[in-house]
């Protein structure tokens, strides 16, 4: 059942040092701006010719989470290093086939939020970390 959920996050208790720190954090306005840019990237991705699995326009797809497996293969292409990382995670952590697509979709979204055309190792690593419940219950 858990492999049907895209992101699993375990939130530990906050430490006093973090709560009392005066270090500047990203503001809600800045976060909203990044999210809006990522959404615009995704709208463009799926509204352009070739954005859908059939080669036409998006067919109602608005975001990465709605991608079909065929679209994941098209829009979530990994480099050699990223492929090796995902292969290791799939093997060592016993992720399901469903988790494979979800990791790639989340990686694509993280890359979009970072303004990156390519899914990089750091984007993939972060997405893998969001499968913590899979690791806790299935390993």
Number of domains: 1
Name the structural class.
mainly alpha
Strand content: under 5%
- Mean of residue pLDDT values: 85
Q: What radius of gyration results from the CA coordinates?
A: 17 Å
Number of helices: 7
**N-to-C order of helices and strands:** HHHHHHH
User: Which shape, going by the Cα principal axes?
Assistant: globular
What can you tell me about this protein's structure?
This protein has 139 residues and is mostly helical. It has one domain. 56% of the residues lie in helices and 0% in strands. The chain is built from 7 helices and no strands. Helix 4 (80-92) packs parallel to helix 6 and helix 5 (97-113) packs across helix 6. The longest helix has 20 residues, at 28-47. The mean pLDDT is 85.
Short key terms for the protein model shown above:
mainly alpha, 139 residues, 0% strand, 7 helices, globular
Helix/strand layout:
Blueprint: H1 16-20, H2 28-47, H3 69-75, H4 80-92, H5 97-113, H6 121-129, H7 132-138
Please outline what is shown here.
The protein is an all-alpha fold. It is built from 7 helices and no strands. The protein has one domain (27-138).
